[in-house]
Amino acid sequence: MQIGYKLAAEAFGPGELVRQAVLAERAGFDFVEISDHYHPWLDNQGHSPFAWTVLGSIAARTERIGLATGVTCPTVRYHPAIIAQAAATLALLSDGRFTLGLGSGERLNEHVVGRGFPDAVSTRQDMLREALEIIRLLWSGGYQSYEGKYLHLSDARVFDLPDSLPLLAVAAGGRDAAALAAELGDGLFATEDRPELVRHYREAGGTGPRYAEVPVAWAPDEESAAQAVLETSRWALTGWKVMSELPNPVNFDAATSTVRLEDVKEKFACGPDAAPYVDAVQSYVDAGFDRLVMQNAGPDPDGFIDFYTRELDTRLRALKPRQAG
Fold first, then answer.
1. Which pLDDT tens digit goes with each residue over 256-274?
2. Is 245 tagged catalytic?
3. pLDDT tens readout for residues 229-262
4. In terms of Cα–Cα distance, which of 98, 38, 4, 17 is closest to 249?
5. Average pLDDT over residues 157-171
6. To 5 degrees, how large is the angle CA 135–CA 141–CA 146?
7. Coiled-coil intervals in this record (predicted)?
8. CA–CA distance from 44 to each of 12, 48, 218, 252, 262 (Å)?
9. How far from 155 is each of 78, 148, 151, CA to CA, in Å?
10. How many other C-beta atoms are found inside a 10 Å radius of the C-beta of residue 102?
11. Are 73 and 106 spatial neighbours (Cβ–Cβ below 8 Å)?
């Protein structure tokens, strides 16, 4: 099992994200994962720097820790040819430490270029399939063209390719997406501890790593931790069907106006006690995930990293799947 640290690009500026990545490497995390957004979820989060620039800076400032996008949408705001080039370059600059996480995206970030965002989930998945095929094609070398229903490529070549291509993890929230991850990806990416996602992935032939984000919030007391989530991260309680559809932070503010502290405590491991964190991670281990990302929504990232080093690292790495039933 590997344990990662989530760089919340909606909550911190670029310099701070690089600083946290350096701290995460010193603390023993195996990798950092960064969200690739144009907008924050809520206006009061206050940030949303360009993830690829931040990753390049992290690659230059670190030596060991892995890097990952969690996740990039390669269909609307970006063309997959650009992502194929960006990921290859980052893999070279990081000496092979980069994992490309890809998904079908959220309206929040994709509508900004004025090309619209498909209403049908099936259309988004079809577009993601075409994007994956284009990226794979370009990574095979040489000049390539592609004529899809939604995406096209005209006589393009990525000149700087690493000897070892980046691992490609595909986000899934259901059977079809998990099968796509098995077919065209190297790994699975999820945001919930649902064992059926891993089962669908494996049934479709997937054998790669399984990434998942674990919602936590560290603070010296449980109430302060939960209050921090309520103020800046309550969007995480809306569920993927809502998170993928709303167009702007103001909509997420309105959609989460009824979220309570009690709701936060049910979703997030909060406070200074290690036990809820261990229990939360155990549920993901039981579900079959083996690349677990600690997504801290608490108010003090330094405090959380110190807490992880002192209280969590050894305990989490010792976890094994419990027998069902």
1. 999 999 999 999 999 999 9
2. no
3. 999 999 999 988 899 999 999 999 999 999 999 9
4. 38
5. 98
6. 50
7. none
8. 11, 11, 19, 11, 21
9. 18, 14, 14
10. 29
11. yes
Name the catalytic one among 33, 37, 110, 213: 37
Is residue 200 annotated as part of the catalytic site, yes or no?
no
Q: Provide the residue type at 68 as one letter.
A: A
> Which domains are assigned to the chain?
2-317 (3.20.20.30)
Which of 10, 25, 33, 106 is labelled catalytic? 106
- The token duo for 56 is 């390049």
Report the pLDDT value the prediction gives residue 324, as an integer from 0 to 100.
59
Nearest to 285 by CA among 310, 319, 253, 255: 319
Structure tokens at 164: 């070892």
Structure tokens at 316: 């989490």
Omega before 71 within 30 of 0, i.e. cis:
yes
> 251 in the Ramachandran plot: left (φ > 0), alpha (ψ -120 to 50) or beta?
alpha
Closest CA to 49 of 60, 65, 58, 38: 38
The pLDDT, as a whole number, for residue 241 is: 83
| Cα–Cα dist 316/61, whole Å | 27
Indicate if the pLDDT at residue 151 is higher than 80: yes
Residue entry with tokens 């059977």: 175
Tokens of 93: 């600059």
Which residue type is seen at 175? R
This prediction has a pTM of: 0.97
Q: Which tens digits make up the pLDDT trace of 91-135?
A: 999 999 999 999 999 999 999 999 999 999 999 999 999 999 999
pLDDT for 240: 82
pLDDT digits (tens, 9 = 90+) for 33-49: 999 999 999 999 999 99
